[in-house]
Amino acid sequence: MQDKTILVTGAAGFIGSNLVLKLLRTASPVRIIGIDNMNDYYDVSIKEYRLEQIRSMASSHPESVWTFIKSSISDRELVGKVFEEHRPSIVVNLAAQAGVRYSITNPDAYIESNLIGFYNILEACRHSYDNGETGVEHLVYASSSSVYGSNKKIPYSTEDKVDNPVSLYAATKKSNELMAHAYAKLYNIPSTGLRFFTVYGPAGRPDMAYFSFTNKLLAGETIQIFNYGNCKRDFTYVDDIVEGVKRVMQSPPEKETGEDGLPVPPYAIYNIGNNQPENLLDFVDILQQELIRAGVLPKDYDFEAHKKLVPMRPGDVPVTYADTSALERDFGFKPSMPLREGLRKFAEWYREFYMD
């Protein structure tokens, strides 16, 4: 990817910022354009912290170019202008309105970012080939494990039928996959969708369970454990996700012509998950231990008094479990960070960011 121009949308986001850091560290010289609207869905100071990390990394790699644009991918004119000016070879679309529960209370945000925004990216990729230009070599985009809905068969495979979403968020992510397939077929745009499974780590999203539990415990509030603790999640450490994304970026699906003389869609979908679901109660137990170890919570903290088992909420699913055999087969890669080690890194970051 050296000497390539790479566009990363959602660049101040959790996965996006870590991807940019990884590219600056391992793919220099490289030109990276980051777009992010810096919305206040969660604490903007965390997004600013991530951008500061990127600026610092970019300054230690002067052979590379880092350009940040504060804007939304739902602004079609802006997206077109960015493609025209910078002509990216690789596009990684991570900008999206995330979160299952928020999609119930604020559906507009999902339509604007996940559908209109993604459509704008697809259109810009399509027109990057105009007038015989080389155009975009590979579009990589974030999908989600939520597309599996309440699929009974586990582990979840990309071969499974995923036509029964249980949240609007899941429906928009499945729509992204369908839209990308149509554009791959019509305009021969190589595209790969990545279904991420419960990503966690330092400077993550405060709406994710491990982060919001920490905030609540520290404030002396009660944490609610859904489905009476009978939930399993395939927690995937952010560095593993980013390593997977980087490998995929370098290998676009091959362009082929079918018997009908038309393109066989250069299109692929992969799961990126830990392939090892953890019980929510065990997860909370490890998190507690690591928060005490890092000095975020006192040694004598009474967890039982701050823990409440409650029923499932709409849009939630009881288990997420990734079949990652295709990722292993095609890229020789499997996420490997043990949960305790990943939560330790989060707890240490949390202490440093909020308490030191």
TrEMBL record:
<dbReference type="InterPro" id="IPR001509">
    <property type="entry name" value="Epimerase_deHydtase"/>
</dbReference>
<dbReference type="InterPro" id="IPR036291">
    <property type="entry name" value="NAD(P)-bd_dom_sf"/>
</dbReference>
<protein>
    <submittedName>
        <fullName>GDP-mannose 4,6-dehydratase</fullName>
    </submittedName>
</protein>
<dbReference type="Pfam" id="PF01370">
    <property type="entry name" value="Epimerase"/>
</dbReference>
<keyword id="KW-0520">NAD</keyword>
<feature type="domain" description="NAD-dependent epimerase/dehydratase">
    <location>
        <begin position="6"/>
        <end position="273"/>
    </location>
</feature>
